[in-house]
Amino acid sequence: MNIFFLISSFFRKLKIKDFIKPAIGGFIAGSIGMLFPAAIGNGYGWLQLILDGKWNDYAQIFLSAVAVMLGVSFTIGSGGSGGVFGPSVMIGGLLGASYSLFLNAQYSLNLHVPSFTIVGMVALFAGAAKAPLSTLILIAEMTGGYELLVPAMIAVFVSYFLSGEKSIFPSQVNTRLDSPAHMDEFGFYILEKLCVRDYMTPNPITVSPNQTLKEVEEILSKHLIGGLPVVAKGKLVGIVTKSDIQKVPSELREKKRVYDVMSTNLITVTEEESLAEVLRIFSSKGIGRLPVVKHKGSSELIGIITRADIGKAIREWKK
């Protein structure tokens, strides 16, 4: 997915006419297809060759998987038309097949290549689409049985956690609460009348920029929270989250300081603002907490409001 987002970002920043970008992407994808024919088309025929035992070159299969990644990324990332379901399934299948064929060739094993191919197909799509449960149902449909369900469960959940929080579908929201289409289901019009001051946590726990990441990690674990405001000399200077800390290797967390990883590009709200406005910010920015300041432009922290507080307000309204 990182390749896909990197190439998409490159084309977005490219300062040329928009209609030229897909032409560049198509030329590169076509060039890749000339070297690796499996990178062109939906790819199901190539997977069928593997399942039938007619394509057994693990090196060529692995390189074809890389070619598909690049071809799809250049096509869609440049603004061209295409989907990601088929390529995700194909890449997973090719990687699963090449892995099993490699083990068979190098260690004289007798692994069942079609099983590895099918498990690879669903595992990669589960991680890319962040849809682990539906892909487990898919494996039963594809095989007509449950023999591969346990290995698929292991592969799917490993893929899901290793792939991080990003989905290959950029418009996919985390929950229905994040979806503008479903806001009315959560009493959005009621949230317009509720103020931040009534639901925020006043005088929240804060940390200083000079504290170690290890100390902050312990505070987060103790209080079961995901992030903390950073305050220096009475002024809000940043916010540090659990994900910021997790990006630093554990052995360095006693040496690294909060100022090394904290976010200083702050978004704040005031206590007079409505919960509806807070929810809009949460949904558009993909964040889960906001510092509350005394007034616009102020750096005086008076509280913090989270998604959980919005949920609390909705539950109270429903009662």
From TrEMBL:
It is a multi-pass membrane protein. Residues 200-257, 262-319 form the CBS domain. This is CBS domain-containing protein. InterPro entries: CBS_dom (IPR000644), CBS_dom_sf (IPR046342), Cl-channel_core (IPR014743), ClC (IPR001807), ClC-type_chloride_channel (IPR050368). The keyword Transmembrane applies. GO terms for cellular component: chloride channel complex. SMART domains: CBS. CDD domains: Voltage_gated_ClC (cd00400). The chain crosses the membrane at residues 20-38, 58-77, 84-103, 115-139, 146-163. Keywords: CBS domain, Chloride, Chloride channel, Ion channel, Ion transport, Membrane, Transmembrane, Transmembrane helix, Transport.
